[in-house]
Amino acid sequence: MARSNTRYVCQACGASHTKWSGKCDACGEWNTLVEEAVPESAPKGLGRTAGAGRRIDFVDLKGVSERAPRQISGIAEYDRVCGGGMVPGSALLVGGDPGIGKSTLLLQVVCSLARTLRCAYISGEEAVDQVRMRASRLGTAESAVALAAATNVRDIVASLDAADAPGLCVIDSIQTMYVDTLDSAPGTVAQVRASAQELIRVAKRRGIILVLVGHVTKEGTIAGPRVLEHMVDTVLYFEGERGHQFRILRAVKNRFGPTDEIGVFEMTDAGLTEVSNPSELFLAERRGDVSGACVFAGLEGTRPVLVEIQALVAPSPLGTPRRAVVGWDNGRLAMVLAVLEARCGVAIGANDVYLNVAGGLRISEPAADLAVAAALVSSLTGEPVPADTVVFGEIGLSGEVRAVSQTDVRLKEAAKLGFEKSLMPTQRSRKTSGRGDSGIQRIELAHLEDLIPMFQETRSASSGRGRE
Ligand code: TYD
Ligand code: MG
């Protein structure tokens, strides 16, 4: 039977189909199948390759492997997210929305690293002059970075596979690269996958650190997404709200380090500057005793980060009230609202609810539950959460406030920034509330119900006293 020499590849998940259809069977996305020619060198099955395979030599697990030192760029926020510097021979993928600042960040990294390591920057999107102009705007035009504008992977591989190859190579971006043996257009799954494969192969062989820039598609995944993510050693996302000057670099996968670290940067005219104390930055615009706001003592990786959580509860003119959330999970907000209503008798149901994490940070920790609940109750009653108080704790479905990890780290950071009290879960080891090593007064809550009287108490205590 004659074999069809085209296939249909899903641009979202990379699955290959023999027939076109409107919906990808593998991932369920619609209109993502694109026709592609089957490459000549498609695997023909083991039986037809050049005879039996070669025996592989097994070695003992116990043994010494020579480890090359990590390459430290000197940009501490970047190095920490990479797990303490980049590992020679590793492949990194830096993803993010177009225009978020990936090229700027990586140009700053290579310029800084160029002092100790030979670095190359290959741009497929910008001309050499444009990159030069950017470097001079960043004040790093004097750095010894090898620069090129190229998109043909064959040429790039030939240049990297030489004795004088650089120690690090940035490819900006992988969506512009193409392998000339494939018919499909640059940016399709087949091209992205083949280009990345070729580049990673040569980088591993030569011990080059390969940094691939990948644009995120409108669906929020790196185009040709999963296929690239499992090919590289490290996946970093560069993200931020467009209207904010903060940018956050987040490790989503790292074979050489932890994956929950973030690096915080601030965008300026002269490029990205590091923010070594993000809490100060996120709390900079905070106004004292305002109702509906409270400070959450969170953790991002190993680092404590204090952010303000703002809630607005307003009567709704609509039959189905609005729920709008920025920076937190919609489903978790619904849960906190339901627990408040069912377990504590706080009826918010008929109101519109807006929730915002100030500063453009996105929080994924369940420990923010209690802070969200406090902000909601505060907005509903009009009573502010005291300005000197931080809040954290997870809420269970029966309304119990559950312990969270790293209490001491959170409290220390709060103390450093001048906070005096903390609303938090009951500590198993220390039953009585009091001041710990951090000097912060611990107000421990066992159940979400315990939170409600605090606002009523403040109301009666503060009546007759003007708001600050
Ligand atoms: P760019 O690095 O080109 O984004 P990406 O490579 O992710 O598409 O940055 C986009 C624009 O923002 C560019 O015009 C430069 C500007 N920019 C600054 O002015 N300052 C900064 O700190 C950053 C990161 C970007
Ligand atoms: Mg760019």
UniProtKB/TrEMBL annotation:
One of its GO terms (cellular component) is cytosol. ATP binds at G96, D97, P98, G99, I100, G101, K102, S103. Gene3D superfamilies: 3.30.230.10, P-loop containing nucleotide triphosphate hydrolases. Keywords: ATP-binding, DNA damage, DNA repair, DNA-binding, Hydrolase, Metal-binding, Nucleotide-binding, Stress response, Zinc, Zinc-finger. Residues 67-216 form the RecA family profile domain. A motif (RadA KNRFG motif) lies at residues 253-257. Residues 352-468 are annotated as: Lon-protease-like. GO terms for molecular function: ATP binding; ATP-dependent DNA damage sensor activity; damaged DNA binding; hydrolase activity; zinc ion binding. SMART domains: AAA. It holds the Pfam family Zn_ribbon_LapB. SUPFAM superfamilies: P-loop containing nucleoside triphosphate hydrolases (SSF52540), Ribosomal protein S5 domain 2-like (SSF54211). One of its GO terms (biological process) is recombinational repair. The middle region has homology to RecA with ATPase motifs including the RadA KNRFG motif, while the C-terminus is homologous to Lon protease. PANTHER family: DNA REPAIR PROTEIN RADA, DNA REPAIR PROTEIN RADA-LIKE PROTEIN. DNA-dependent ATPase involved in processing of recombination intermediates, plays a role in repairing DNA breaks. Stimulates the branch migration of RecA-mediated strand transfer reactions, allowing the 3' invading strand to extend heteroduplex DNA faster. Binds ssDNA in the presence of ADP but not other nucleotides, has ATPase activity that is stimulated by ssDNA and various branched DNA structures, but inhibited by SSB. Does not have RecA's homology-searching function. Plays a role in repairing double-strand DNA breaks, probably involving stabilizing or processing branched DNA or blocked replication forks. Belongs to the RecA family. RadA subfamily. This is DNA repair protein RadA. It comes from Skermanella stibiiresistens SB22.
